[in-house]
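Per reviewer request, we include the raw input and output of the structure prediction for the construct analysed in the revised manuscript.
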Amino acid sequence: MDYFIVELIERKKVAIPLNQVQEVININYSDICPMPGVNNNLLGVTNHRGNFLWILELSNLLFNQYLPNFALNTILLTKIQHNNFLGLVVQKLGEIKTFSDVDKSLRDTVININPNYYQGIIPDTEDIPILNLANVQNSLNS
């Protein structure tokens, strides 16, 4: 299966199944409208092609660290289910890699992420967690 590798805070990497990646967009921080009363990992919403797009600060959700607020943020637009999109703030775009050997064991002590947020590990030169975007989205509703 193909995975899009992205870098978050402090060179920490995560993999996202390529079939859930729609596009990469750049959004001005000033174009994100904060929404009161929502999960603090959600920066707010922005207009993307006439639709509301929630923007998630993924580094804070996974590692309790915010990325610096740049004037322009790189957003990975992901599709979780039919017409259900979520924008993920990422530090740096990586590469697309194909891995057939994915470790399904959850080693939260090694990568220090809540096991609910990932569905396996890519054994590379470093262990890269594969995000479970459905669980990430579900956690934002609580």
